[in-house]
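re the bet — no i am not wrong, look at it urself. input seq straight from the record:
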Amino acid sequence: MEKTIGEQIKQGRLAKGETQFITAAKLSVSQQIISGWERGRRKVATRYRKRLTKEYGVQFEPVPVKPERRATPDRRQPDITPIEEQFIGELRGLLEAVKGMLFNGVRVRRGRIIRRART
C-alpha cells in the first residue's frame, strides 16, 4: 500500500530528527500547516512540493495541466426563450435611457432625479 503524502512528510522529517516546528521554519510556514499536511487535512501548495521532494523525498503525483480552451467559431449560442428575449430588449431600452440622462446632465441618486442641466 502506498504511503500518503502526509505519511511521507512525517517519515522524512523524523528520519532527519526534526520536529514539526523546525520543518515549518525551514519552509517558512507555521507548525499548524505541517501538522495539517501530515494528518491529511490540508493540501500541500504547489510552491512547497519541490522543496519537500528535495528535503524529505516526498513523491507527489504530477499536477495535471489544463488544456487550452480555444474559442470555436461554430459554438452555438444558448437557446433564449421569448420571455428572456423581451427582458433583454427592455434592459437595452433602459440602458439607452440612462445613457441619455447622463449625457444630458441629469443626475440620479438612490433612484431619484436630483438635478437637471440648465439650458
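see?? The first strand starts at residue 107 and ends at 109. told u. also The first helix runs from residue 5 to 15. so pay up
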